[in-house]
């Protein structure tokens, strides 16, 4: 069953047109399942060693231990994209397919961005209307990414404190307040180990894309393109 046509007249097919997001969604669910299974195995192994009660699968996936592990990964991923979206407005890497051409940094003109009177009939409504709505829509991607980052980071803090206090109570130690946990080695150790891995991945991708290729990928330059060709070069 088709649902209309694309601009070139080809019929739209939901599975074909959205298979990238579908595959990543399935992979996300599979990796979450795998993480929950192996996390439970590890948790119960430690519980047996300490002579403590083991958890069922459902109790584990609703526990603070599982929540903090998931949240710390999510917050670092969204930090990565928030920073990358913002920094590539102003910063460039000559020859990389991941940035704009040197000399073209900045917000660009309304005409280049197709907003206000430069919008087309097919432009999103908030790109055409002008005023605060166009201004808000102009930064909506970064705003949503940043909000998800802060929500995930907050979830990491809340779940991490609960998990840390569970361990402290086993050792007959006083529980930590939220302020104490936010200043603790556990919170910042979890946070920074994820941040550095994301920054490493993005930085190396920007540089590797100068010299290395993947034929047919929009994240790569054409195989025969010169190394110093940047994304928006003619």
Describe this structure in words.
By secondary structure, the protein is mainly α. The longest helix is centred in the first third of the chain and has 32 residues, at 19-50. The protein is built from 10 helices and no strands. The protein folds into 2 domains: 14-62; 65-107 and 140-234, no CATH class. It is elongated, with a radius of gyration of 23 Å. The mean pLDDT is 89.
Write the layout of secondary structure elements.
Elements: H1 14-17, H2 19-50, H3 57-61, H4 64-90, H5 110-113, H6 125-129, H7 131-138, H8 140-170, H9 178-182, H10 185-211
Helix pairs in contact: 4-8, 4-10
Percent strand:
under 5%
Low-pLDDT ranges: none
What's the β-strand tally?
0
Tally of individual helices: 10
**Terminal residue distance:** 39 Å
What general outline do the C-alpha atoms trace?
elongated
How would a textbook summarize the main sheet? Answer: none
Mean pLDDT: 89
C-alpha-based Rg, rounded: 23 Å
Structure classification: mainly alpha
Q: How many discrete structural domains?
A: 2
Order of helices and strands: HHHHHHHHHH
Helix content: 55-70%
Q: Could you give a quick summary of the protein structure above?
A:
The protein has 234 residues and is mostly helical. The chain has 2 domains: 14-62; 65-107 and 140-234, no CATH class. It is 63% helix and 0% strand.
List keywords for this structure.
234 residues; mainly alpha; 2 domains; 0% strand; elongated
């Amino acid at each position: 069953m088709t649902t209309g046509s694309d601009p070139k007249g080809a019929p739209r097919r939901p599975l074909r047109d959205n298979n990238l997001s579908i595959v990543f969604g399935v992979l996300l669910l599979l990796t979450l399942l795998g993480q929950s299974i192996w996390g439970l195995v590890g948790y119960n192994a430690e519980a047996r060693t300490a002579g403590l009660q083991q958890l069922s699968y459902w109790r584990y996936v609703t526990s603070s231990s599982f929540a903090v592990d998931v949240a710390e990964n999510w917050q670092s991923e969204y930090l990565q994209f928030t920073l990358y979206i913002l920094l590539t407005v102003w910063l460039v890497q000559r020859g990389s397919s991941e940035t704009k051409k040197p000399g073209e940094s900045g917000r660009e003109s309304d005409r280049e961005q197709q907003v206000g009177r430069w919008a087309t009939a097919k432009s999103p409504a908030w790109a055409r209307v002008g005023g605060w709505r166009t201004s808000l829509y102009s930064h909506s991607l970064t705003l949503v990414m940043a909000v998800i980052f802060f929500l995930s980071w907050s979830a990491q803090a809340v779940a991490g404190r609960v998990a840390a206090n569970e361990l402290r109570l086993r050792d007959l130690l006083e529980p930590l307040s939220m302020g104490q946990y936010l200043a603790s080695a556990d919170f910042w150790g979890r946070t920074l180990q994820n941040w550095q891995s994301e920054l490493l991945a993005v930085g190396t991708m920007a540089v590797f894309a100068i010299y290395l290729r993947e034929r047919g990928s929009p994240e790569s330059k054409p195989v025969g393109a010169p190394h110093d060709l940047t994304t928006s070069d003619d």
